[in-house]
């Protein structure tokens, strides 16, 4: 049994955590940058088209033809996430809101996961810096809250921001959906895009649900909302879901250009 002193410390810690959880979002002056990176491994998950039972052709080309995509093993040999030199640029920030670092009146850089608090942090940032129009995604592992991720994505679109993966940049998982939200999308030749299937709170993945389940329509609807036509939306969704949730497949800028328009 815990001692009275230990119990008191536990109660104090819990109370402190509660205060932090409901504290208002404020800009913070940046003095240090701490990042966490995750290295993924890749195994071929088979044909991406099997999820919907068809291949999808756009302009006469099969978008799910693995032979036309970058060889993942070769691409993996170069890099798995943003290098330290790229992350160091965040030190130029004037203020920070969660994963967002404001660089100047028009540019913000992002590094880190999306959490339940991130949409609120994004709104506070725009209130403080209403002229922001360029979101540079430096090292974005994905989302810890899928609902918050889609809320943030639509907020990025409403704000009229362009999304950019600069030289050395790496975005994975739900961060790819954020990049798709840009009114203009840009990516450096060495930009890194990591995709995989989603999973629900019970550990079930996209392939565990029947093809006519409404959950798929939600994702496909989002892709169409961001400007993908029906064929490309379905092809990209099938490609992402061909890789299990606990794995990742890396795509290049040229791979992404087969599904979305790059500026």
Description:
It is a single chain. The protein is α/β, with parallel strands linked by helices and 263 residues long. It has one domain: 2-enoyl-CoA Hydratase, Chain A, domain 1 (Alpha-Beta Complex). The protein contains nine helices and eleven strands. Helix 4 packs parallel to helix 5. The N and C termini lie far apart (63 Å).
| Assembly form of the protein | single chain
Number of domains: 1
Overall mean pLDDT stands at 79
Largest sheet: 9 strands, mixed
Low-confidence stretches: 1-57
In short:
By secondary structure, this protein is an alpha/beta fold.
What keywords describe this structure?
9 helices; 33% helix; 2-enoyl-CoA Hydratase, Chain A, domain 1; two-stranded antiparallel ribbon; disordered N terminus; alpha/beta; nine-stranded mixed β-sheet
Give a topology summary.
Layout: H1 4-21, E1 57-58, E2 61-62, H2 72-76, H3 84-87, E3 95-97, E4 100-102, E5 107-111, H4 118-128, E6 134-140, H5 146-158, E7 162-165, E8 170-172, H6 174-180, E9 185-187, E10 192-195, H7 214-225, H8 230-241, E11 249-251, H9 253-257
Parallel strand pairs: 5-6, 6-7, 6-8, 7-9, 8-10
Antiparallel strand pairs: 1-2, 3-4, 4-5, 10-11
Helix pairs in contact: 4-5, 5-6, 7-8
């Amino acid at each position: 049994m815990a001692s009275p002193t230990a119990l008191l410390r536990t109660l104090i810690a819990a109370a402190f955590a509660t205060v932090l959880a409901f504290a208002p979002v404020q800009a913070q002056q940046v003095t240090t940058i701490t990042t966490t990176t995750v290295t993924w491994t890749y195994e071929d998950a088979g044909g991406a088209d099997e999820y919907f039972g068809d291949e999808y052709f756009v302009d006469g080309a099969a978008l799910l033809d693995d032979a036309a995509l970058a060889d993942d093993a070769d691409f993996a040999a170069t890099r798995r996430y943003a290098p330290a030199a790229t992350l160091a640029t965040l030190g130029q920030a004037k203020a920070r809101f969660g994963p967002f670092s404001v660089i100047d009146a028009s540019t913000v850089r992002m590094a880190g996961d999306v959490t339940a608090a991130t949409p609120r942090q994004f709104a506070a940032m725009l209130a403080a810096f209403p002229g922001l129009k360029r979101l540079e995604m430096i090292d974005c592992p994905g989302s810890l809250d899928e609902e918050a991720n889609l809320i943030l994505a639509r907020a990025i679109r409403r704000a009229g921001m362009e999304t950019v993966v600069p030289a050395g940049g790496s975005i994975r998982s739900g961060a790819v959906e954020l990049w798709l939200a840009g009114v203009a999308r840009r990516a450096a030749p060495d930009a890194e895009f990591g995709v995989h299937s989603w999973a629900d709170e019970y550990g079930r993945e996209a392939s565990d649900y029947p093809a006519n389940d409404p959950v798929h329509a939600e994702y496909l609807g989002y892709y169409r909302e961001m400007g993908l036509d029906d064929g490309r939306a379905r092809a990209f969704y099938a490609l992402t879901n061909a890789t299990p949730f606990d794995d990742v497949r890396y795509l290049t800028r040229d791979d992404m250009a087969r599904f979305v328009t790059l500026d």
